[in-house]
């Protein structure tokens, strides 16, 4: 069984997420317990700006400068075993700390204690765009002013190859009439130069591009669609499409393409923004460069026009309803309180209500102080006439069993999900990566095919394991919401994996590779057998693993060798940086091979660290050398 722990990350010289013993940052409080001090910051428990399942946001003060800050306090125990959530928080921090731009919420500091993680960001006192839209009818010029700020922020994001993926009014904060992009929990670094495609279904449905709703590949322009929906909501006081669920929303979009409203007269630039951002086909949607140029021209023409909001945006007497960012919005669980949670009473009936934060991901229960077997036996053997103690013993025993089953199944699920992620990464870069190698034998395509087959086989085994546990523990599965959610998630992910296989097979058909692969002596058996019918023998499964190892080493070797030869003595960081995504692909291939070896030996695998390591290197050449050293573990010391 795999074990997971919080990763070590260096931010501003401080080790985060695994740093319980730093005496200088241990939280202390004043006599009445209302004012808390954490490092150089203090906050009053009465000044809570917002809260979610995993923590709260407070208005705080930096004690040396007296600067007002937002302090997001997260309970580490709530997500220490949830790999996806932890990665989301890490991603948010890593992305935030890169930027110092007026239209992006500024990261200030990060502090950890044994129980809590504190993310300190700039304080935005004028609420968010959602509040503004709900409480004020914006003029067209005001809407353009807001959109200009958002686009200015995206200039910086696009320059650094970041896609946001959860753009919505609630994630646009306001401070002194400046609109700032916030909540980077779903954000991701992408390879803009090669039009990398993504497939993860994340974000808020009302603002999702149709490709995401349809679970199809999407790329750089998904955020542009979200910008169009937000602008539509500002100028028309409503979103362009509504529905009761995602499927109905997608159908409405496909059946009713966007049209301007005849009863509302808009400026030419506003009409053009709406027409060109709300285009269903991503390839036909306006590009970022065109959108940036459009607003540059708008700024030049309106340079002398005063701020359309005047001296004040909002009533500053009101409490500021700050969102909790990734800690709450990414995986706000429908159940959350201690280990087995209570329903979120604020959820709306429809997932398309703007304020709904219902989760679509599994939340791993906290595993603090797990009960050992001796303690379980002791509790179970309590006298039956001691009703209270007997109830506690039964509850503890049940809780332990839930955790044990959850961790066993979810650990295997994460292994499958990682391999699927690598499949998607390799497929999205197939054109460029194959240029780095001699691919006449279709080794790259065969590698993807083998990893995808491994995912399918592992998922089939996982479903069997899940079914056996459900049948053997019907009472636990019917009452434990964590296990119900996990079961539903696994079955939903199986559909995602099927979609990927279908898309990949369609690709090799369109490229006229299908016959060559079906007749290939190494991989032909994959086409001849059906995993869902248990036609794969143990020997077949071992063949798949062996081919992943041999093909993976070969493909990685060719990609890295070619990049090493190409970059030569190049020194420009901009020149070198374009090759990093392909070094990352090679590294992910090696991760799949290494993970299998560790699994066979019963060693731990830290999936969050595998992702994090890909962004830790400031120098491309250093990154290349590191991956070369990793390859040498398998006996291929490739590069001098």
UniProtKB/TrEMBL annotation:
One term of GO molecular function = protein serine/threonine kinase activity
Q: How does it assemble?
A: Monomer.
GO CC terms = autophagosome; cytosol; membrane; phagophore assembly site
One GO term of the biological process aspect: regulation of autophagy
KW Cell cycle (keyword) present:
no
- What residue ranges are annotated as transmembrane? none
Instruction: Report any Pfam family annotated for this entry.
Output: Pkinase
Protein kinase domain location: 43-299
Q: Where does this protein have coiled-coil stretches?
A: 459-486
Q: Which SMART domains match?
A: S_TKc
Q: Which domain of life is it from?
A: Eukaryota
Q: Protein name, please?
A: Serine/Threonine kinase domain protein
What PANTHER family does the record point to?
A: NON-SPECIFIC SERINE_THREONINE PROTEIN KINASE, SERINE/THREONINE-PROTEIN KINASE UNC-51-RELATED
The record ties this protein, via InterPro entries, to: Atg1-like (IPR045269), Kinase-like_dom_sf (IPR011009), Prot_kinase_dom (IPR000719), Protein_kinase_ATP_BS (IPR017441), Ser/Thr_kinase_AS (IPR008271)
